[in-house]
Design brief:
The protein is α+β, with helices and mostly antiparallel strands. It has one domain: Alpha-Beta Complex (H-NOX domain). The chain contains 10 helices and 7 strands. It has a 4-stranded antiparallel sheet with strand order 4-5-7-6.
Length: 192
């Protein structure tokens, strides 16, 4: 398989690059110093509906994770998700889910499989189960962990899931409850 087989929507990669200035000054400088202008440009993609090669996206994401560490990386993705869910491509989807299904994150978590399939190509599949009215378990399976740094992607997805709570002004947590890097599999539990 060539590298272009794995893709992510450009708006996701673009928000990672576009928010580097939000990092603490020293961290932002270190990330910029580690990336060439060409790497940043490729990660930005071109056009609203464009896809970005996952190699280009993960090049930037890995540097961010290396510089700021795991917890800050999850928070970086959480804030990016808040901004993405509040505007752009997915705003209408999330607004509709909130208006139709009420002021609970449940409907949004239930449709995270659709959001994931809309946003990625050949990066695994997502399944969501809801064992009770305040819990959603989100399983990502089949991520190509032999090609891309799994810890970085796992943290990004965890932060993106945490960002859902901001849509509803509800406190919640998202934890990793099971992980198998060899299979590219991780199970997240969201509780509110």
């Amino acid at each position: 398989m060539n590298q272009s087989h794995w893709r992510i929507r450009a708006h996701i990669s673009r928000q990672v690059v576009g928010r580097l200035h939000e990092l603490p000054a020293e961290a932002a400088r270190r990330v910029r110093d580690a990336l060439s202008e060409e790497q940043v440009a490729r990660a930005r993609g071109d056009g609203l509906a464009a896809w970005v090669d996952m190699v280009d996206h993960m090049t930037v994401c890995n540097v961010v994770q290396d510089v700021i560490g795991s917890e800050a990386n999850i928070a970086y993705w959480e804030e990016g998700a808040r901004q993405t869910y509040g505007g752009g491509f997915l705003q209408k989807f999330f607004s509709t889910a909130k208006n139709v299904f009420g002021a609970s994150p449940m409907a949004t978590f239930k449709r995270f499989d659709w959001v994931y399939s809309f946003s990625t190509r050949n990066l695994g599949t997502v399944e969501v189960v809801t064992p009770d009215e305040h819990t959603a378990e989100v399983t990502l399976d089949g991520f190509p962990a032999d090609r891309f740094r799994f810890s970085c992607y796992r943290e990004g997805t965890q932060g993106s899931l945490r960002g859902i709570f901001a849509l509803f002004d509800i406190a919640g947590e998202v934890t990793v409850v099971d992980e198998d890097e060899a299979r590219g599999r991780v199970v997240y539990r969201a509780r509110w």
